[in-house]
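sorry for the late reply, my laptop died twice this morning and i had to redo everyting from scratch. anyway the thing you sent over, i finally got around to it. pasting the sequence first so we're on the same page, its 90 residues, then the predicted structure underneath. double check i copied it right bc i was rushing
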Amino acid sequence: MRRQILGWLLAGLFTISLLGCDGTSSSSNTDIDKIIKAKQMVRARLNYPDTADFHELKTSVTGNTVHLVVTAKNAFGVPSTHTFDINVSD
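ok and here's the structure:
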């Protein structure tokens, strides 16, 4: 009896999770393109671009402005964290 209830419960949860997926993501392709362009622009400003570590969870796009947080080595070779707001056109 318990296995039947557990089975129906799992089947119901699986069905609900499938119905909740509409196949879209929170980021559009144009937002992703803007982020890629902004990261290229930021790397060009860094002393050691190969050490750039972007904080992906702090990245956001509002209109044409991309907000990035990056940790990279500074002129002394010491890791330093910086915040950039980059204006990127389509």
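The chain has a mean pLDDT of 84.
thats about all i looked at so far, will dig more tmrw
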